[in-house]
Amino acid sequence: MNKVLKGLLDKIFKPTQQTSQQETQNISQAYVEAMIDAKLKEYAATIQSTNENQQHEKQPANGDEYKLTAKQMEFALSLISKISNEYKLAITPTELTVKDLNRLIAYQRYGNKGTLINLVKNGVLKKV
Predict the structure, then answer these.
(1) Model pLDDT, residue 48
(2) CB pairs under 8 A, 24+ apart, for 84-87?
(3) What is the C-alpha to C-alpha distance for residues 36 and 122, in angstroms, rounded to an integer?
(4) Measured between alpha carbons, how far is 53 from 60 in angstroms, rounded to an integer?
(5) Burial profile 78-92: b = 16 or more Cβ within 10 angstroms, e = fewer
(6) Residues 2, 13: Cα–Cα separation, whole Å
(7) Core vs surface per residue 18-48: b (16+ CB within 10 A) or e
(8) Where are the domains of the chain?
(9) Per-residue confidence (pLDDT) for residue 51, from 0 to 100
(10) Which pLDDT score, from 0 to 100, does residue 21 have?
C-alpha cells in the first residue's frame, strides 16, 4: 500500500519514472533463481497434497463399500434371481458392493422388505 502511495506521489511531483528502472537493476540473478526455486517447491507441495487428498477420497469410508469378489458376485446374483419376480438388478453386477450383498442376505435370512426398499432407493434394484 505504501509503495502505491509513494508511486502516485512520485508521479505527481516527478514527471519521469526513474525509480522503476533503478528497482529492476537491483534484482540479481541469484534472487530470481531463488524465487523460481521457491515457487517450484510450493507448486510441487500443492500437487502432492492434492494427490494425497484424491487418494483419501477414493478410499471407502467403511468396509461395506468394497466391490465384490467373483464368488460373492455369483452369490449375490443367485439371491437376486430368487426375488426376480418382483425386482431386477438396476446396475451392472460389477458395481455391487459388500453393503448390497449384506442387505440381500438380510432379506433372505429375515424376510425384511425394508432391505429391498433400501436397495431400490440406492438404485441397485428396481421393481419389475
Answers:
(1) 83
(2) 84/128, 85/128, 86/116, 86/127, 86/128, 87/116, 87/119, 87/120, 87/125, 87/126, 87/127, 87/128
(3) 50
(4) 13
(5) ebbeebeeebebeee
(6) 16
(7) eeeeeeeeeeeeeeeeeeeeeeeeeeeeeee
(8) 16-58, 64-127
(9) 75
(10) 54
Extract the C-alpha cell encoding 30: 541469484
Could you tell me the three cell numbers for 88?
431386477
Series of mean pLDDT values for 10-residue runs along the chain (128 residues): 76 63 69 90 85 62 72 90 88 88 90 88 87
Which residue carries 452369490 as its cell?
75
